[in-house]
């Protein structure tokens, strides 16, 4: 019989840069009282668990340990960050073959545990690997989600906040589609606390919206490449994004987040995993929120879906 889910327990599979940073943000979040770290390199998981738990006297009590798959049976959320990372110049899609084989082997282990928790896939290419995890696990669609464009949307909000000299939390803007080169910034619904982004730009004395917005979207899209070029890996931003998604689930917040999930019939797109704003709560993705988009944005979203489907074919 399946073990009952412990809403206070999280598992992190893969303890490299992204996994260990996510574990560190989760330790500080007070969301969980138990966290198991799993890595193919057991010593790495043990080292990270030790290092992170030495911060506990400055945080809240929590049981943090390196374990194996038998420890994840009752975890509420299983964060999967295992896999090879992007090398300089390598696209996320280049990683597909390597990482889908790793994902299939991890899901095989998770399946043996009869888990009722939520899978949160972070490894890249995240949309394709979320699809692989969904199919391989047989879990219901609401319980298999990817971090998707939560990070990209945060980068967009950050850059817009900087450009407009306003708190990035007051900026409401989404990147949708693939977490990667075909992602789309949805300018048509972007706003600053209800004021259309173009109007807010004018208020702040900016003209040349189109040029500025195109430049910001390009910067956001290329952020990972730039960071990887400079410091080999990205992990702080995604660590915060993982914490935010876990928070929405554990606290049943019903927050609208652009996570990656299986799409059926939005703008004619079907049977592909990509990011659209979704209501996220205790059951994972509750429902999608099909925000209004311009016809040009819809066409780009369809192209993004097509790209992802083509890449998914390469994993078969
Ligand atoms: N979704 C996002 O927004 C986002 C952002 C940054 C990085 N990433 C992705 O996260 C992944 C991890 O990146 P990283 O920088 O931490 O890489 P890393 O190389 O530092 O860590 C990967 C870890 O996975 C482990 N691993 C490999 N195969 C495993 C297996 N079968 N079972 C358990 N553990 C296994 C390795 O031992 C290693 O510790 C990459 O795919 C990267 O592209 C995603």
From TrEMBL:
Annotated ranges, domain Lactate/malate dehydrogenase N-terminal: 9-146
Protein name (database record): L-lactate dehydrogenase
CDD domains in the record: LDH_2
Protein activity control: Allosterically activated by fructose 1,6-bisphosphate (FBP).
Enzyme active site: 179 (proton acceptor)
Record InterPro entries: L-lactate/malate_DH, L-lactate_DH, L-lactate_DH_AS, Lactate/malate_DH_C, Lactate/malate_DH_N, Lactate_DH/Glyco_Ohase_4_C, NAD(P)-bd_dom_sf
Tree of life domain: Bacteria
Keywords: Allosteric enzyme, Cytoplasm, NAD, Oxidoreductase, Phosphoprotein
Residues engaged in binding NAD(+): 14-19, 39, 44, 69, 83-84, 99, 105, 122-124, 147
Binding, beta-D-fructose 1,6-bisphosphate: 157, 172
Modified residues (Phosphotyrosine): 225
Top-level taxonomy: Bacteria, Bacillati, Bacillota, Clostridia, Lachnospirales
């Amino acid at each position: 019989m399946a073990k009952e889910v412990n809403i206070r327990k999280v598992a992190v599979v893969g303890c490299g840069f992204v996994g260990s940073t996510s574990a560190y943000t989760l330790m500080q979040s007070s969301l969980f009282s138990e966290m198991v770290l799993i890595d193919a390199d057991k010593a790495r998981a043990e080292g990270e668990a030790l290092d992170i738990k030495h911060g506990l006297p400055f945080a809240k009590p929590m049981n943090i340990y390196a374990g194996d798959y038998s420890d994840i049976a009752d975890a509420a959320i299983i964060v999967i960050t295992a896999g090879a990372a992007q090398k300089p110049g390598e696209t996320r899609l280049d990683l597909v073959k390597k990482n889908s084989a790793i994902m299939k082997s991890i899901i095989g282990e998770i399946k043996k545990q009869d888990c009722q928790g939520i899978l949160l896939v972070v490894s890249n290419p995240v949309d394709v690997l979320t699809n692989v995890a969904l199919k391989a696990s047989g879990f219901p669609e609401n319980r298999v989600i990817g971090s998707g464009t939560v990070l990209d949307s945060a980068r967009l909000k950050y850059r817009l906040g900087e450009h407009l000299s306003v708190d990035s939390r007051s900026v409401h803007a989404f990147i949708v589609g693939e977490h990667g080169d075909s992602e789309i910034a949805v300018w048509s619904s972007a706003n600053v606390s209800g004021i259309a982004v173009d109007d807010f730009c004018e208020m702040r004395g900016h003209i040349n919206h189109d040029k500025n917005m195109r430049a910001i979207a390009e910067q956001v899209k290329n952020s990972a490449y730039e960071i990887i070029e400079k410091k080999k890996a990205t992990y702080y931003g995604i660590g915060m994004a993982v914490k935010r998604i876990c928070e929405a689930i554990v606290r049943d917040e019903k927050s609208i987040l652009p996570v990656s999930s299986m799409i059926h019939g939005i703008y004619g797109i079907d049977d592909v995993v990509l990011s659209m704003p979704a209501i996220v709560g205790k059951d994972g993705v509750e429902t999608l929120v099909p925000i209004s988009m311009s016809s040009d944005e819809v066409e780009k979203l369809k192209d993004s879906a097509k790209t992802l489907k083509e890449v998914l074919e390469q994993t078969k």
